[in-house]
């Protein structure tokens, strides 16, 4: 398709004003405090993945409200620890899949925690294992309008809290250096990584690519591609609900998390991306508190730089590992490993 968004020079300096609720910090502080107050153990069960160069554990950790969230922990076999770790969040509609599907970080010497997305895993890919036990009011198809009437009931409140708890969880694992943890993801995974970075202190880096849910007020209506089009469809039926809908989404907007993210970041953006329009990506990057670089792919859409971009992520992250601070303690977890 043809380019439809701002030009590259305009994107480089694009730092729009984005609505931020007065109680944003209190809202997320209470959300995380109540979730972290749940006394629940991390469960780890080694699995026979058929792979000989990595070890795989099936992990369940407590997320929002203590709900059990599944993940794969993949470790390079025989590596000396403690290891740097990458927490990866997955794309819209898919689940954590199978542990051998994403081995690039362990092959490069990192521990990797691949986190399931609650209630997803049945749209594409190879499945997920995490239900979402919480209900919501009327919604359009998909996930963006689930609980849209109230930020406290919104689906992504739970998902973003799960993400912060995934960072908490990986930092307690004996194989991991808690001062050298990064977050990453593409599309929905990029939005979740941004939220995790805004809600977690002491990360060594954040690597969001083509994130949805940034500068939502502009993105909805700029593109007719899902998932942002779900919001437009909802508003086409719930006429006059704009104010409430966009107020709820302001608690979830990547720009507002970017303003609080202290770790450095490397973004990836396709300048012909209709799913995560580049102006939304740059809005988050240019507001990033810890400083962010963007690698733009001029002739790509939502696929972005693919393997080429991962090579650049790897080089960028390795360059920052030596600057990681002292180890930090974990948060109220008991880990049980089942032989």
From TrEMBL:
GO MF terms, alphabetically ordered: carboxylic ester hydrolase activity
Query: What is an example of a Pfam family matching this protein?
Result: AXE1
Record-level GO BP terms: polysaccharide metabolic process
- List of residues binding substrate: 92
**Acetyl xylan esterase domain sequence ranges:** 1-318
- The record places the active site at 187 (nucleophile), 273 (charge relay system), 302 (charge relay system)
- Per the record, the domain of life is Bacteria
* Record protein name field: Cephalosporin-C deacetylase
Q: Please tell me the species this chain comes from.
A: Microbacterium kyungheense
Instruction: Give the source lineage, highest ranks first.
Output: Bacteria, Bacillati, Actinomycetota, Actinomycetes, Micrococcales
């Amino acid at each position: 398709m043809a380019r439809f968004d701002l030009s590259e020079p305009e994107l480089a300096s694009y730092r729009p004003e984005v609505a931020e609720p007065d109680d944003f910090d209190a809202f997320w502080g209470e959300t995380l405090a109540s979730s972290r107050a749940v006394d629940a153990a991390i469960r780890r069960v080694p699995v026979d993945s058929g792979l000989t160069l990595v070890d795989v554990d099936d992990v369940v950790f407590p997320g929002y409200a203590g709900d059990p969230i599944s993940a794969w922990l993949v470790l390079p076999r025989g590596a000396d620890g403690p290891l740097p770790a990458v927490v990866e969040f997955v794309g819209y509609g898919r689940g954590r899949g199978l542990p051998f599907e994403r081995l690039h970080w362990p092959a490069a010497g990192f521990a990797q925690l691949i986190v399931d997305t609650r209630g997803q895993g049945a749209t594409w890919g190879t499945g997920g294992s995490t239900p979402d036990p919480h209900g919501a009011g009327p919604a359009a198809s998909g996930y963006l309008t689930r609980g849209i009437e109230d930020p406290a009931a919104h689906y992504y409140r739970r998902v973003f809290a799960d993400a912060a708890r995934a960072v908490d969880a990986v930092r307690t694992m004996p194989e991991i250096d808690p001062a050298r943890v990064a977050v990453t993801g593409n599309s929905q995974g990029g939005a979740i990584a941004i939220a995790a970075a805004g809600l977690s202190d002491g990360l060594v880096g954040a690597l969001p690519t083509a994130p949805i849910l940034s500068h939502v007020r502009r993105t909805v209506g700029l593109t007719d591609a899902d998932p942002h089009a779900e919001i437009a469809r909802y508003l086409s039926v719930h006429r006059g609900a704009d104010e409430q809908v966009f107020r709820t989404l302001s608690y979830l907007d990547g720009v507002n998390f970017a303003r609080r993210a202290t770790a450095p970041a490397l973004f990836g953006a396709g300048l012909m991306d209709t799913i995560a329009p580049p102006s939304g990506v740059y809005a988050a990057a240019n507001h990033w508190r810890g400083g962010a670089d963007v690698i733009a792919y001029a002739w790509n859409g939502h696929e972005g730089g693919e393997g080429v971009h991962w090579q650049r992520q790897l080089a960028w992250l390795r360059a920052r590992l030596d600057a990681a601070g002292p180890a930090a303690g974990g948060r109220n977890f008991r880990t049980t490993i089942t032989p």
